[in-house]
Every structure is written in structure tokens, then in C-alpha cells.
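Aim 2 progress update. The chain analyzed this quarter is reproduced below.
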Amino acid sequence: MSGPVVWVAELHEAPVVAGLLVEFRDWNGGDWPSANAFLASVERIIERGEGEFLLGSVDRDSRAAAICQLRYRFSVWVAAEDCWLEDLFVAETARGHGLGRAVVSAALERAAERGARRIELDTKEWNEPARGLYESLGFSNSSKGGGGRDLFYGRRLESRGS
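Predicted C-alpha cells:
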């Protein structure tokens, strides 16, 4: 057995990426965005170079069963790219094979290759398996330094454009 395989998704693999994101949405108990909206978003992100998606399989002979989205932006605080690790998901049938660890490890390598000096993510406080994985790979809940725990805040905005 060869072990997990991870690669950067290409545009022709957008339907595979979108399909895994739909599985993730369903696993989270959601019903929106639609499968078509996911596909259009994935195609846009890949075409415009706004980020990249990593796909993973348990071995070379298996279908993609893991997804991770990486988004980049320049940060004045580190004078380099920041990487946001978003949407990590491993299909239930592929869990327990080290695929999540392989995908996150590949994300760390991709971010470093792009010159990122920091990689960040968020996860639910109750998601102990994910927290354990991230912590075992060197992530902490105080990634910005200083005392205390970094807290993630957000707010939805109403669209004013067409």
C-alpha cells in the first residue's frame, strides 16, 4: 500500500472539488450553497488564481476523498503572504487512513513554497479530532503571538452590487 496522495486540483477537476464541498456542506447539516453555486465558485477561484484546492486520496488507485482550500493575501504585519487554510474535509469512508494529516502537511508545504510566513485556520471548539490534528502539526490558538488566545470574528454583509 502506497499511502495517501495529495495534489493541487486543476480546472478540469472542479466538479470533483465541488462534489467534496457538497459532501462537507451536507456533513455540517447545511443545504446551501447549491451544488451549482459551489462549482461556479470553485471554477472562479481556480481560473482567477484567487486560491487553490488540494485533493487527496488514500492511495494512488483511489478516488479523491479529501479537500482543502488555500487562500492567500499579502500581510503588512509579516511583509509576506498569509495563507488561510479553509474547508478541510475528509469523506467519512476515507477517515482513519492519515489522509487529513497528509492534506494539512501538503498545505503547509504549498504555503511555504509560495513564501507565506503564516498559515491560519479556524475550527469548531467542539471538533476535538480536528483540533488534535492541527495541534500535532504545530498550530496553536495564538498564531498572532502575544498573550491569550486568538479569537476569530466575522459578520455577514448584505450585497450592494449586482
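The first strand starts at residue 5 and ends at 8. The beta strands are 5-8, 51-57, 66-75, 80-90, 118-120. These observations will guide the mutagenesis experiments scheduled for the next reporting period.
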